[in-house]
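Pair request: fold both.
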Amino acid sequence: MSAPAGADRPSAVGADTTRGRRPLAAAADTSRTGDSLRVSARPKGDIETTIKYSAKDSIRFEVQEKVARLYNKSNIDYGDMELKAQRITVDYSKNLLTAEGAADTTGKVLGKPVFKDGGGTYTAGRINYNFKTKRGKIAEAVTQQGEGYLHAETIKKNELNEIFGRNGRYTTCNLENPHFFINATKMKVIPKEKVVTGPFNMVIGDIPTPLGFLFGYFPTPGKSRASGLLFPTFGQTSDRGFALRNGGYYWVVNDNVGVRLTGDIYSGVGNSFGGYNLMAETQYLKRYSYNGLFNFSYSSRPPDIILPSPSVNTNLEYRKPRSARTLWVNWSHTPTPRPGGGRFSASVAAGSPDFNRQNSYDPRRYLAAAFNSTIQYSKTIRNSPVNYNVQLTQSQTTNGIMTFTLPSLTVGVARQNPYEWFGLAPQGRFYEQFSISYDLQARNELSNQVTARTLPNGLPLLGGTNEGSVIPVRFSNLRPFLRNARNGMQHNFQISLGSYPVLKHIILQPSVRYQQYWFGQRLTYSYNDVARAIRIDTVRGLNVVSEIAGGLSLSTNVYGTLVRKGTHKIQAIRHKITPNISYSYSPDYTQRSSLNWVNPVLGDLANSQGQPYNVRDARTGRILNPVSFSRYNNSLYSVPNGIRASLISFSVDNQVEMKVRNNNDTTGTTPFNKVSLIDGLSLGTTYNLVADSLNLAPLNMSFHTQVARKLSVTANASFYFYQRDSTGREINRFLFDQPNRRLARLNNANLSLTYQFNPSQGKKKSVVKRDVAPTNILGSPNQINPYEEYVDFDIPWELNSSFQLNYTDPGPIPTRRNYIRPRPISSASLQLNGSVKLTPNFRFGYTTSYDFISKRPVAPNLDFYRDLHCWQISGYWAPFGEFRGYGVTISAKSSLLQDLKLNRNRSFWNR
């Protein structure tokens, strides 16, 4: 039934004993009089829209008293307001809704009122609500505000949805009887903004504590991000005193940009100030376009230790910084790929060499020996085979060496078929296989590392040095820094002449390669009679060097299959062999001295036999005892080495797989599975037809396979064919020609084994893929360890193991005394990491490695995590090593109360 809005009494037909829904009041009716343009409406009353109601038991209307009563699982919808309760009373004369629960025979109250209004939800013992003024009084109320829950003896709500509570409790625990709460006699809540209390104290486990203050302020932003203060954490360090860390302000600029300004301050000791750290971080994102993070950090610390060490060891653990003031910049920019559009990306990590050693909490950054930065833009031109890439790169090491590439340009032209240039239609002719591809590379490189200046054969060099040097990075050294620059350009034309079958199963592929190098400088060599040494000068200008080479290759595939008759688990084994023979030729460039090689007259300089260098025979015109110098030594690109090469290369690849019957197949669609036994076994070597000695290059071998989809095996080795003298230098005699004959000698090898242990997931024995820790999204705290609060309880346990072994030939047995022969096994280590779920809420993790050479564990680390519902406890322990220490943190899980925590730690940065 419905009644017109503004009516003096509700229309009623009688009690409704069904589960139906009926409108208690409807919008006003309209009627027409004689003139169709005149429309009259009844005056608008207090009820603005339809009230919908329902009840499981009955609905009774008391027309004279203007009261409607709903019994058993009652429900009322009125606009944005929704009310559910065991009993609801609607008083139209007072515009009042009253809701309450009802006790059963055992005394348990059923159907407690649940009230929703303006996005807020309230659970209460009794509710009185005026739907005209939109004000209400709620007894024994519980409501959620953001991540927090408000419990109050009595709540008053106004038309702005502001809440005034008395004898209230504020908590982030979602239990009816929370594990902890903030107890206050008076509270005011402004939804999606803040909670303000009078005097309060903390109650933990129903035990009042003296922790409190004269007033409380708790922000409850409606959005996931909000501007506000970042409260610092307390700590202590051995070299800088007490500390307040990560305090500052977070500013929400807009929906796309967030700025974090934080800092650390250290007390020092006595009159010595401990210094400070400053950090500015900006996170930005634009949906479907890009996202990024820019971080600038600055640190000022005491140049010397200010707190004495309690250690009695004379070798102090303190490492004196090379600079008291350091800075660091991190920038990452990642675009969203778009078809046909340009792509700008950046990955920058640069700053003072000592910054990470002095300030980083991440062991990976603390131990890193080098950092690289790249800013690049790449694009493929639409409707064109041309693409280009522009890069600005920088690399630096912890010892102060910096290298800048400003810029690096790459232009590529995809493979083109010349016959298409003339508009010819494909007809299957041989020339249709001819193709040309082109790429250009250009670089301008700046470095503060000056390389050593030496000459071959130990020839004296004017101003030479056997050791390099490093130019300090500062503005006063800009001129020598620029003078040390290198630049050049390389053009590469790859000409393919197609592929042709030979003897039906062999593929012949001829090819031609033409390269051209452009350099901005070249070297000139002259002999100084006074100093009896060679002088090198740098001449600026454009210099062009060309190189051409050609070759052909023969390749095929050979299959060997063993098929078992009958019904067997292993039905067949197949061996695939891919042999390849190729030939390449490049001419001798040493005679083209005007281009890239020079044989200067060296006066009376002679070799150990007294023969002078570069003396031309007057009769034959040949150069006796020649020694050549490259005009482009230490250039960016490898120019032709000047030696004629005629190379034959041999290689063979092997793959072995078997066909295994699938016992789980019941439909017949997949009766067999393919299982790989050897993913790859490659062997290859090269023979130089025109070399005067040591024609046969070492044999290189690589092997890879995966066993049971969990054990991965990778091995690489290099074998030499020639004998050695007592100094370890190879001589032109095969090992097969010596009395103790053998084909080859193992020179170096490495072996890698990786195995992942984890329980089965259903019937699959494959590796369980763990999710990564959540990324640092816009506005979220930048934690020291991004994995410390991430736990995956879906995996009961796992263990990842990795074994690494490296072998290097130690050389011949020494004949002289006091010579220590190096170890053949240069490194052998086992790395282990994993976790165990001891209980549904407790996980234990471990990371360690064992060095078999030093016979000691390296960097062991144990960590644990315990979920305490609304609290959590986590910690780690590194018992020994450079990063030894421990840390324990007990904290509230809610990010709203992220500063409500107790931690204790002692680690490698605050011993």
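--- second member of the pair ---
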Amino acid sequence: MEGSETGWGRPAEPAPRWRALLDRARHAGRGAEQPEPDRRVEDPLPPPRPITPPEPLGPPEPLPRRAAHNGYAGRAPATGQPERTYGGQPGERTYGADPGYRAEGAYRVDPSYRAEPAYRPDPGHPGEPAHRVPEQRRPEPPESRYSLLDNGYRSEPRPAESRYALLENGYRPEAGYPAPPASSTAPPAPVPPPPASPALAPPPAVADRAYSARAEWRPPAPDPEVERARAVLRREFGSPRVIAFANPKGGVHKTTATVLAAATVGSVRGRGVLAWDDNELRGTLGLRAGSARHARTIRHLITELAQIEILEGDTLLDRLDDFLRHASDGSYDVLAGEESPRFAQRLDQFTVRRVLELLRRTHEVVCVDTGNNVESPNWRTVMQAADQLVVTTVPREDAAFSADWMLDLLHEVGMGELAENAVTLISCPTPGRSQLQDDLERHFASRTRAVAVVPYDPALETGSSIEYAQLQPETRQAWLRAAAVMLEPFAR
């Protein structure tokens, strides 16, 4: 750069003070030093100089003081200008510029450089409008709730006229039509108001209570019919009772009724109830009731029946418990049937009677699920030993016809009393009530002692394990009434 220290055509600023001091020290040192001649190793050393005593030191030179902070102190004057001080103290030593220092020449513009012409906009091109910042509006403050007091009274808008204004306010002619002429007849005399009744004394003031009102849940009042059914099931029955559930047709809820009757009686009595699957063709009672803690069935019990019959008391109970399954809540026991159809030939009349006598010694109520073959020895033996017969059916004509035919058969074989004292149990497989159900109730009420109806329950629709606690309250209440009807003749 030439002419200045900035290089932008501006006059050079005075050199700073530290630069002048540095130049002075550098030039002064060079003048004092003497060039030392070259010498070789062979040359003899010069004689030592005599030591002269040092001259006494004079008073120390005062140190330079810093000038006032006026923006110009401590800077060297420009070249060719006299040295000046700015705001120095009188008698204070000032430092001028170095006479050997030469400022650079001024910046010169290259004559061959030509500036580009200024940009000229196209006259045919319309300029873009300037961008305007949208004005930000301050949100209006919400109206004060006391605006009526602050701003004075403001009348509200007139409400819309009711559609029943003609009935409420009477007839009003529209504008532009003359009013109807007044009637010449005199208006009727006003009806005198009824005599005022004597003033009633105000109700006595109720003293404020110290505690606040609270909501308290109270259970609904128990159904008296359900409570009566529970009382019947808690009574003594005199001796162990056998309840047989029968219908020659399959799919009429015999197994379901056997399990739920045992579960209902066991939930009230707590013990002494058993459900036996006496189906000769692979019954499913053992799968739908009781916990499968083992795989023993009636076949295993018969194998050791002779050794078990001679036992008594707790020893008998413990030994028989090895062949029984228990409900999840422990309210009843289950004696599962054999899955092999060949075993049906071994269940003769004598064997079935021995099993029933053994179960009567250990349980108070024995519910038996019979098979579909009315000619088999085990079916007829159970009918002869039963204290109560329960005819199960559903609201279907074929199921009702099969149950009606079985009652006729019992009358023919000399068990008419058992058929007349039977209880007809109608199980609803679907929600709702049909006209056929009403007809079946009237028909079997004329042939049996009583008719009980249990409603549909979605927990029984899948055909899986039956859990009494999972039934709906209405279903459990219906089974309580049905079980009470079955055992009521024996309650004491």
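Observation on the second member. The beta strands are 241-246, 273-278, 325-326, 333-335, 365-370, 388-393, 423-427, 450-454.
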